[in-house]
Amino acid sequence: METGFRISPSFLEEQNKRFESEANREYDALGEALETRGISIELLVRRAGAFEVALPSWAVGTGGTRFARFPAGGEPRTVGEKLVDCATVHQLMRITPRVSPHIPWDKPAEPQALKAFAESLGLGFDAINSNTFQDQPGQNLSYKFGSLTHTDKAVRRQAIEHNLECIEIGKKLGSKALTVWIGDGSNLPGQISFRQSLDRYLESLRVIVNHLPNDWRLFLEYKPYEPALYATVLNDWGTAYYCATDLGSKVFCLVDLGHHLPNTNIEMVVSRLLQFGKLGGFHFNDSKYGDDDLDAGSIKPFQLFLVFHELVSAGEERRGNQNLSYMIDQSHNVTDPLESLMLSAEEIQRAYVQALLVDQKALAAAQEENDAIMALRILKEAFRTDVTPILRRARQNAGGALDPILTYRASGYRAHKAKERPARSGTSAGIV
Ligand code: AFD
Ligand code: MN
Ligand code: MN
């Protein structure tokens, strides 16, 4: 597999020189300000540097709505090209070392070769995503009326087999988790039996869980509506929690921030799932109205901060195999997807570092004393702190870019890719 154009390390270094003196000045000023608050900036730089979030393979192509898709030039046409784009994001950001693949969109002809190619780019694979919400060319039975919960056992069997195939591919790629999101549900009242469809869901999932390797986890991704616009089978966190509990110790709930009805208190959902030991991970994005898949932190940065505050205050923010899985899930309709991914990864890391600034002891005392104003003030003080110098320094220490977006633009990466990757008709990238 060819990489084509890559940003050279010397170019990156040269670019960093442009931003260095200002970055240093701002870092020193913040260091001093934090010191007076009794906080060590070096410690925060280390924790920021240890933060990781996975990239979704489907988000490096231009997304679309159900009306249209307006692809820009240089879109990746193969899974190899998607990996090269992800590697470029990681090269500049240094916090996105894994890619979450989607089958069959990323189905590799030779999984081992793909794994080796990813490794040569400094990447690994995160949770593998199955897809039974579309029909694929040559597929025997249709998912028009459901997949894992279909009334016809043969359709359920086909959907189960697909998930088992995903596990097999994932094993070869080095994944440790399977994420299952289904489009099953109903568009009209009376169309499905709520009770029987959920029973069938559990019955199908049980077969998949039985095939899960011991060191794997399975994430149940819930969503209130779309494509089923009256009711989905796995509609909310409560149902997901019930199912994850029923399905045993390897099964967890996945919180996609956009999969909640407007005004849902998502940080509280996160806290509950964490408290019950059933929070598996996240799909980060932002939302104004529904499953908008907008860039993380673009609409409700305070909410993102409060989510991380719940994780940090519970001491559960660690990321890794047995801990939480952090993944981005976005659709970039009008931006260069790589720029959106870089900015989003930074916003997620920012929310995490801001949450680390919360004075936990003072907050606990304010809660104990029922001092609501002081409690809010403590949270706001952390949220208001501009931690950009910390994020920059962490990237710089790891060999990344001080200003990823400007460095990316200056490199001409997109123009190079537009030449290397002439658009193919029928290229489908980025649902969602
Ligand atoms: C769909 C769903 C969901 C899922 C993604 C990838 O809304 O967010 O994670 O597809 O399977 O967009
Ligand atoms: Mn999602
Ligand atoms: Mn979604």
What does this structure look like?
With 432 residues, the chain is an alpha/beta fold. The chain is built from 15 helices and eleven strands. The chain has helices spanning 9-36, 41-50, 79-93, 111-120, 153-173, 194-210, 237-247, 266-275, 301-313, 337-356, 360-368, 372-384, 388-397, 404-411, 413-420; strands at 55-56, 98-100, 124-125, 128-129, 177-180, 185-186, 217-221, 231-232, 251-256, 279-284, 325-328. The strands form three sheets. It has a six-stranded parallel β-sheet with strand order 4-5-7-9-10-11. A three-stranded parallel β-sheet has the order 1-2-3, covered by helices on one side. α10 packs across α12 and α11 packs antiparallel against α12 (372-384). It starts with 8 loop residues before the first helix and ends in a 12-residue tail after the last helix. The model has no long low-confidence stretch (mean pLDDT 96). One manganese (II) ion binds at residues 256, 258-259, 291, 293, 329, 432.
